[in-house]
Write a structure and sequence with these properties.
Layout: E1 12-23, E2 26-38, E3 43-47, H1 54-61, E4 69-78, E5 81-82, H2 88-94, E6 99-102, H3 106-109, H4 116-127, H5 132-145, H6 151-154, H7 164-176, E7 182-186, H8 194-211, E8 214-218, H9 222-228, E9 231-236, E10 239-245, H10 246-251, H11 256-263, E11 311-315, E12 318-321, H12 339-348
Parallel strand pairs: 3-8, 3-9, 6-7, 7-8
Antiparallel strand pairs: 1-2, 1-4, 4-5, 9-10, 10-12, 11-12
């Protein structure tokens, strides 16, 4: 990890990030005006259904968006420096050093022609002033840390010789080997059994405490989020729909989508015949509805949902993209609305030309 002067403020600050994919069928707004921040030593959980923009957001931070995708707007500030304004050569110094990433699919992320130990050692040598021998020893040490038995022998094996879970652990070892300031973990425990998952999460927690390492944890597993995260961002159709500390999101969620996600989880202290489900499907990114993107699936749908909802603060540090009042009630609109409410609603109106 490169030693730099400590920046006063958030470690990572994303402002109005937009990443679009320009296809023959139209423009896919995979990430649309996403804003959040992560402080030193904080764990931020990013949750949502497949296709909501979680992984594209993380790849945008790393500047790893391939054509036909392109980051079209926004800022990604790391220690106050805009990563989107850096040259490609400078970004190579950032990746793996200040920011490391555990990718979702280890088999396609590891090079099949090099041994696992060589790949970890290469990352260490790239970003630290150590000898080849020291880098190799560090690789073996990190493989032991993530629970790979007989690490010295496994370091000499190629990815295809390992199971899916062991390949995932190699990716985690590689990401953690340089002691990054920020670890982006995209489904880091998907291929692991429960015992190894707990061990990996403990390693990540220890490094967070020891090095004040921040973690951006992308996952479908709300149990992992409840255990690991300090703050939670909920995404839907490319937008952030709710953000708050983990206790608030799990205890008093505001957005109907967040409520639906939590109701779909089985609980040991409740006995129900059927779990709740979120009806319908995620809308096509090429044919998004006007107004609220969740309105077709929302049990609270109102006429005002045809207008884009405000991203409002419904409690201290608790933000929600929904027309419901902070108390979860229908807003006063029409004849019952106050002047301020009518003006605020009018500012949200969009006129679509045909």
């Amino acid at each position: 990890m490169t030693v730099t002067a400590r920046h006063v403020g958030p470690l990572l600050e994303i402002k109005g990030l937009k990443t679009h994919f320009f296809t023959q069928d139209g423009v896919v707004k995979a990430v649309d005006d996403v804003t959040f921040q992560i402080s030193h030593g904080q764990t931020l959980g990013v949750v949502g259904e497949s296709g909501c923009g979680k992984s594209v957001t993380s790849l945008s931070v790393m500047r790893l968006i391939d054509r036909p995708g392109r980051i079209v707007a926004g800022e990604v500030l790391l220690n106050g420096e805009d990563l989107l304004a850096k040259r490609d050569a400078d970004m190579r110094d950032v990746r793996g050093d200040q920011v490391s990433m555990i990718f979702q699919e280890p088999m396609t992320s590891l090079n099949p022609v090099f041994t696992c130990g060589d790949q970890i050692a290469e990352a260490v040598q790239q970003h630290t002033a150590v000898s080849r021998r020291e880098a190799w020893d560090r690789a073996i040490e990190m493989m032991r840390v993530v629970g790979i038995a007989d690490a010295k022998r496994r370091a000499g094996e190629h990815p295809h010789q390992l199971s899916g879970g062991m390949r995932q652990r190699v990716m985690i070892a590689m990401a953690l080997s340089t002691d990054p300031d920020l670890l982006i973990a995209d489904e880091p425990t998907t291929a692991l059994d429960v015992t190894i998952q707990a061990q990996i999460l403990e390693v990540m927690r220890d490094l967070r405490t020891k090095n004040r390492m921040a973690i951006m944890l992308i996952t479908h597993d709300l149990g992992v989020v409840a255990e690991m995260a300090d703050e939670v961002v909920v995404m839907y159709a490319g937008k952030v729909v709710e953000r708050a500390d983990v206790r608030t999101v799990f205890g008093t969620p505001h957005h109907p989508y967040t409520k639906g996600l939590l109701l779909s989880i089985p609980r040991l202290d409740e006995r129900v015949e059927r779990l709740e489900v979120i009806k319908g499907t995620v809308p096509s990114p090429l044919n998004l509805p006007t107004g609220c993107l969740f309105k077709r699936r929302c049990p609270y749908r109102m006429r005002v949902c045809d207008t884009a909802p405000p991203y409002q603060e419904v409690g201290p540090g608790h933000f929600s993209r929904c027309w419901l009042t902070p108390a979860g009630e229908e807003p006063a609109v029409g004849a019952d609305a106050t002047g301020d409410e009518a003006e605020a609603a009018g500012e949200q109106l969009t006129v679509e030309t045909r």
